[in-house]
Specification:
Helix content: 55-70%
Length: about 200
């Protein structure tokens, strides 16, 4: 973690605003706007881009991916510019938590990978790009989105260490652990050989 130099009250406000931004369920908003139904009743019921793709609308899935990633990245960048690096990490972590446990949906949110990657790119872009590349390589080899997410999340702290981004490692480990926990059912299906592959039908 970077040195904490910002007043605790201000950091608390940053955390609240970051959480509220992260809580915006873009997948649900987009699918409803396009008349695609309630995303929570489609496929896995998850609110992220992978499940939006199961509606058959690739544009909606791409928009969800970019917006879910963007809310983590935007939170980091705004806090960094206006306050400092300590606030940037608080904002990014809070936005990530907001996506996982959004107040608007009874604290039942997404699995966090897009927001995780967006936050990483804004915090330390070399680490973020390395994690994205890891996701892409695993996805290309196995065509399993959840497996790609798990491998990219687990290796992200190692990428941070290798690339010299030591002040972000603690937050990265925390977020990666939450990504793994949110993929518990996916892990069971991967081990059972029943996890859906990218490109499968709705």
């Amino acid at each position: 973690m970077p040195e904490i130099t910002t007043a605790p009250l201000l950091l608390g406000l940053v955390a609240l605003l970051g959480y509220l931004l992260g809580s915006v369920p873009f997948g649900i908003v987009i699918t409803r706007m396009l008349g695609l139904g309630d995303l929570r009743q489609i496929g896995s019921g998850n609110i992220g881009a992978t499940n939006v793709l199961r509606t058959g609308n690739r544009g909606a899935a791409l928009a969800t991916l970019l917006l879910d990633a963007g809310k983590g990245g935007v939170a980091v960048l705004i806090a960094r510019v206006l306050i400092g690096e300590d606030a940037a990490q608080i904002a990014g972590g809070a936005a990530f938590i907001g996506h996982l446990f959004p107040v608007w949906l009874g604290f039942r949110g997404g699995k966090g990978m897009a927001t995780f990657l967006g936050t990483l790119i804004a915090l330390a872009w070399p680490v973020g790009l390395a994690a994205c590349a890891t996701w892409a390589v695993v996805a290309g080899l196995f065509r399993i989105s959840s497996l790609s997410a798990l491998v990219a999340a687990i290796l992200s702290a190692a990428w941070a260490a290798l690339l010299g981004e030591h002040q972000s490692i603690a937050l990265i480990i925390l977020m990666a652990a939450l990504v793994v926990l949110r993929h518990e059912t996916n892990i069971r299906r991967i081990l059972a050989g029943t996890e859906p592959r990218i490109g499968d039908g709705k």
